[in-house]
Amino acid sequence: MFKSSLTLLLPLALAACTMGAPPPANEPAPRPPQVGQDDAGHQGGGEDACGAERVQSRLGRAYGEALHQELATTSGARQVRVMRPGQAYTLEYLHDRLNIRLDDGGRITDLFCG
To answer: Which InterPro entries match (predicted)?
Structure first.
């Protein structure tokens, strides 16, 4: 009798050891974005934190190193990323980064923050 009870209780005891901790109770809800933050919560994001509006006149121009420097300087962006067709790139949003999208011919098709 004792031996059969032990064989029944042993699997239950082992199962109790493998249970994870219960989820935390009363965890606070995430805070909504504050005024002046973008969707990712970056402070001071704004619509044009990278200066893309200041360089829209360069759309359609052939991309090159000199134009890259001009875009970086004129926009005031802290970072500049070139996006070529078929090229892999990350999806993180950086409010102060200027993105330069090129077509197959190396011409600028889009200038935007992110």
So the answer is: Prot_inh_I78
